[in-house]
Write a structure and sequence with these properties.
1073 residues; alpha+beta; Multidrug efflux transporter AcrB transmembrane fold; Alpha-Beta Plaits; nine-stranded antiparallel β-sheet; RND transporter; AcrB_DN_DC_subdom; xenobiotic transmembrane transporter activity; Acrflvin-R
């Protein structure tokens, strides 16, 4: 390696070409990188869904869900099964392990499902779909005061237009209900004409059709024979003939029914700022360039809103519901601006304390390293996203570290007068070759575990890891092969000429560090070595304090930091069976809360231009109310007003909804779960209901727990039909009664119409007024096989009984999730720990037959930390072996790796001071800080070892090493800290999600500086002393107290030669005595 360094130092053309290749490659790599808010998460799993119209949840569970579960239960690579049985359909979610071949897993699931041969005859074919997690990066609202059908047609047009624009291929229309032709038959008319439901249904099936009759192949040409009588309008359906008789004449459908060419239900409303609306959502395509795509979509919106273009009528407009590219651009600007500010600060520090030439080329080297790293990123599958960009900030300290160590050592060679120019560049680089290379290798090893974890989190951690690894690879190349060539022309500094005074001032500032090292640091270091046990004990006490601060929750832990959005998503879930009128009341309550928030915001923040809420979309459907509420960007809000505060403000104004099952106000991009969730499993739903009630009651005792609930559906009444004794003598069975009741109330699907690319169902049933009245069931007449009509009450009994609206299963048994939202950072961990000690043991005694587990995010977090713990232990072992081989010592690697626990210690103290929670990304900051400090320790210990090889004693070598390496160690820590200082000082909302990482990095580096300068020398001295004790005990060598001949002068003291044989605590070869 020394020869390669020398060759490149002498060949400036080669070094410059290498730098140009890095720059050009970086530009090329950047153009190939995708742009996205977050990387797409690949999830391994499949869903099997089966529709069975009109079936109860119990029937769906017993005849569909359990059969699918049993069929797939032993598939290779299966992780877990979760299922839901609802009225009319069932879904089985099959999650595979993260290391499986997803294509083979999906084929196995399809094969097993296809082999099921005992599905209900009326059920539809099972649909197997692969899991795909595609987040919509942009949403559009098409709104106006027009009828529903027109609005849906216009929504289809906008969706198709967007799909033809690059990036919008997967656009989908939301906020609409399916069209349906409802043929509502009058029982009185049926009775008057003597016809049945089945007669009407069969007449439509037989008369409304398109059919091919083949072809006539004549000599004059082929002629197709077809029947084209498929009805498509209410009038066409009404003209279909049911029966023709001499008494009644021609009986048509419109004689016995009213026909409505409408929608599946009218109990659906979607509005945007009060106007009817439909939505076009744009999911991320396979190749993502968010800025380019959204620019095209904005141009389309502008074009569509111009009536002159004829895309939309004047009464209808398109508005952007949300646009992730705005948040992406804001955060990219923040990170870029902070990086540039940090680079300027780093260069200023280097100019002040080294030389302008060194500072310039070190800064250029940082840019070169990043350019070279970016050249590799597309091949690692890294996109340009929020995570990869802040990884750039994360690694900048380590890159500066390498360049400073090399540049400072070359500068030192020149200033000492030992050599200059080319010789100084070569010698200065070769002297620190080993610590720099092994420092980079250990840093890479520290980050690699995050690239090998399994699960969805890997897609996030790999983005950071690969950026770090790529940048570090080129950092070594730059500082070993390019930087020496650029500094090979540097000579001893002269102070003549016009800039002499300025250079002299800079030189005096740079010398102040040397003065500080000799006059302030050196005496402190001597005291630390003299009282080495007290020094080491002090630092370990601080480490113990840090573990207690973290363990007691004083510094709370949050798995993922909140990334606030400029939109609040509200979802209010009501119990099954909630009347639609009540749902509309809840929607009105939400809209009133939105208006109240606007008004109060005007009063509290009069300086805001416009409304704090820019627009709001509300959808009321089924048993839920959902809303997307856009708020003004952070830069337009009062200082400190975050999305969290606006969300809480809105929540208070909406008020309580006592009968709601669940209410959520989400204001984040990453939907980080802040609450607790537990899964309880048992075959009996009533037993589950009892157990869930006990858990909910206990959760209510915590002051910081709110919105406590479970996902058990509320019990709903159902009417159960049974046959009266003797009813069979009339020739009618329970199946006949059940079928005729189903025809009347659920309806009978007679056909599906192809219309605008969709299937429109045609349903025959009773009028809605009859289906909403319980008395109509008692008045219903059923038809016997011989055509007689008899009241249903003569042959059937009706019994009211509690029913079930939804059944949830987990790993093939019925399950319930009990949940609660938690206020305050770290609250979830505190509740989990308290329940583990005080609640769950008693719960297991009360419900020994109920299985318990954590559901949702906490369960995944536990798996994640168990796995990353194992990988980190492997990484630490690898680092130890690498350093042990490099330094030919068993003990010195332990000394070098003291950076790891004390980087964590510094991070905890920093987060405590800045009142910032620890998050997963904090560990990346700690790893980067550990890389900086390990590099510092390597430089120090390598120098100490060389001094001892030259004949210096241990204390003399430690003092010499500390004083001589004080400047590079201090500069690496200071430049790392000032490089991220702009982000630490940043108060904007966009910077908050970066705070756990940057605070951890900055505080860890600042604290570990004292570890390198004071504790490591003290521990080294302790190790030497322990080695002497072993020599005295086992080797019979006379014991001498360490440092007894140390003079305090920076000279080699022959009397202080402390040879350390292989039995020495540090395991170094002893110099001749």
């Amino acid at each position: 390696m020394n020869g390669i360094v020398a060759w490149f130092a002498r060949n400036a053309v080669a070094a410059n070409l290498l730098m140009i290749v890095a720059f050009v490659g970086g530009v090329f790599g950047y153009t190939k990188m995708e742009q996205e808010m977050f990387p797409v998460v690949n999830v391994t799993g499949a869903s099997v869904s089966v529709a069975w119209n009109g079936a109860s949840p119990q029937d769906v569970e017993e005849q569909i869900v359990t059969r699918i579960e049993e069929a797939v239960a032993d598939i290779n690579g299966l992780d877990r099964i979760t299922s839901i049985a609802n009225e009319g359909f069932g879904v089985v979610n099959i999650k595979g392990r993260d290391d499986i071949d997803m294509d083979k897993f999906l084929d196995d699931v399809k094969l097993r499902v296809d082999q099921i041969n005992n599905m209900p005859q009326a059920a539809f074919q099972p649909q197997v779909t692969r899991w795909e997690q595609r987040n919509s990066f942009m949403g559009l609202a098409i709104h106006g005061n027009v009828d529903e059908r027109t609005l849906k047609r216009l929504g289809d047009k906008v969706r198709d237009d967007i799909a033809n624009i690059r990036g919008g291929e997967l656009a989908e229309l939301n906020g609409v209900i399916d069209e349906q032709v409802n043929i509502e038959v009058s029982e009185e008319a049926l009775r008057r004409f003597g016809i049945s439901f089945s007669d009407v249904a069969n007449a439509i099936r037989q008369s409304s059709l398109n059919s091919s009759g083949g072809r006539i192949e004549s000599s004059s040409g082929d002629v197709a024979i077809t029947a084209r009588q498929l009805a498509d309008t209410a009038k066409q359906f009404g003209n279909i003939i049911i029966r023709q008789t001499t008494e009644d004449g021609t009986i048509r459908v419109d004689d016995v029914a009213s026909i409505d060419d409408g929608f599946v239900t009218d109990k659906f409303q979607a509005t945007f700022n009060g106007e009817p609306t439909v939505f076009v959502m744009i999911p991320s395509p396979d190749t993502m360039h968010i800025l380019d795509y959204t620019k095209s979509f904005h141009e389309y919106v502008k074009k569509a809103n111009d009536p002159a273009n004829g895309i939309l009528p004047q009464a209808v407009k398109v508005d952007v519901l949300w646009d992730d590219s705005e948040g992406f651009q804001d955060r990219m600007d923040l990170i870029t601006q902070s990086a540039l500010q940090g680079a300027v600060l780093v260069m200023l520090v280097l100019i002040l304390f080294l030389r302008p030439t060194v500072a310039l080329w070190v800064t250029a080297g940082i840019i070169t390293a990043f350019a070279g790293g970016i050249m590799l990123l597309p091949y690692f599958g890294v996109s340009w996203n929020i995570l990869s960009t802040f990884a750039v900030l994360l690694v900048i300290g380590v890159i500066v570290d390498d360049a400073i160590v090399v540049g400072e050592n070359i500068h030192r060679e020149i200033e000492s007068g030992r050599s200059e120019g080319l010789d100084a560049a070569i010698i200065g680089t070769q002297m620190v070759l080993k610590p720099v290379i092994f420092g980079v290798l250990t840093t890479i090893i520290a980050f690699l575990p995050w690239a090998f974890i399994t699960g969805p989190t890997r897609m996030f951690t790999q983005q950071i890891t690969f950026v770090v690894v790529a940048a570090l690879i080129f950092s070594v190349i730059e500082c070993m092969l390019i930087l020496p060539s650029h500094l090979s022309h540097m000579k001893k500094q002269k102070f003549d000429g016009p800039s002499g005074k300025l250079l002299r001032l800079q030189h005096s500032i740079a010398d102040s560090l040397l003065w500080f090292a000799n006059n302030i640091y050196k005496p402190v270091l001597e005291v630390a070595i003299r009282f080495r046990y007290a020094t080491v004990a002090l630092f370990f006490c601080l480490f113990y304090l840090a573990t207690q601060v973290s363990g007691m929750g004083i510094v709370p832990f949050k798995f993922m930091p909140e990334i606030e959005a400029d939109m609040i998503q509200v979802e209010i879930s009501m119990p099954e069976g909630t009347p639609y009128e009540r749902l509309i009341q809840v929607r009105d309550q939400l809209q009133a809360g939105i208006q109240k928030t606007k008004q109060e915001a005007h009063q509290e923040f009069p300086n805001i231009e416009g409304d704090i809420i820019t627009d709001a979309s509300v959808v009321a459907s089924g048993t839920s109310v959902r809303s997307w509420i856009s708020i003004i960007p952070p830069e337009e809000r009062p200082v400190g007003l975050r999305s969290r505060e606006v969300s809480e403000f809105l929540r208070n104004n909406v008020g309580d909804i006592q009968d709601a099952e669940e209410v959520t106000f989400d204001f984040t991009f990453n939907d980080e779960q802040s609450g607790v969730r537990f899964a309880l499993n048992h075959p009996n739903l009533e037993r589950l209901r009892e157990a869930a009630a006990v858990v909910k009651e206990h959760l209510s005792t915590y002051n910081n727990a709110y919105d406590i609930g479970d996902n058990l559906s509320s019990a709903a009444e159902e009417i159960r039909i049974s046959m009266k004794p003797g009813a069979e003598t009339l020739g009618i069975t329970l199946a006949d009664v059940s079928q005729q009741v189903r025809q009347a109330y659920f309806g009978e699907e007679v056909q599906r119409l192809p219309r605008d690319g969709e299937d429109v169902r045609v349903m025959v049933r009773l009028p809605e007024s009859a289906r909403e009245n319980l008395d109509s069931l008692s008045a219903l007449k059923v038809r016997t096989p011989d055509g007689r009509e008899i009241p249903i009450t003569q042959v059937a009994n009706f019994e009211y009984a509690p029913g079930i609206n939804r059944i949830i299963r987990r790993n093939r048994t019925r399950s319930v999730s009990v949940y609660a939202e938690v206020m305050g950072e770290g609250g979830r961990g505190q509740i989990m720990s308290a329940m583990e000690q005080d609640f769950w043991p008693d719960f297991q005694k009360q419900f020994p037959d109920v299985q318990r587990g954590e559901a949702g995010g906490f369960e995944e977090e536990q798996k994640f930390f168990a796995e990353i713990g194992r990988l980190i232990l492997i990484a630490i072992g690898t680092m130890y072996i690498l350093l042990a081989v490099a330094f030919r010592s068993y003990a010195q690697p332990i000394l070098l790796m003291m950076a790891l626990p004390f980087a964590y210690c510094g991070a905890v103290f920093g987060l405590w001071i800045f009142n910032t929670p620890m998050a997963m990304f904090s560990f990346f900051g700690i790893a980067a800080a550990a890389g900086v400090v390990i590099n510092d320790n390597l430089v120090l210990i390598d120098y100490v070892n060389r001094r001892r090889d030259e004949g210096a004693g241990a204390v003399q070598a430690l003092v010499d090493g500390g004083v001589s390496r004080f400047r590079p160690i201090l500069l690496t820590s200071v430049t790392t800290f000032v490089g991220i200082l702009p982000l630490i000082a940043e108060k904007s909302v966009q910077a908050q999600f970066l705070k756990p990482m940057v605070v951890s990095l900055g505080a860890a580096v600042a604290f570990a500086l004292f570890v390198s300068l004071l504790m490591v020398p003290a521990m080294y001295a302790v190790g030497v002393e322990i080695g002497r004790i072993f020599q005295w005990t086992w080797g019979g060598k006379p014991y001498r107290q360490i440092g007894e001949t140390y003079s305090g002068e920076v000279t080699i003291d022959e009397e202080e030669l402390i040879g350390t044989s292989h039995s020495d605590g540090l395991g170094r070869a002893a110099p001749a005595e």
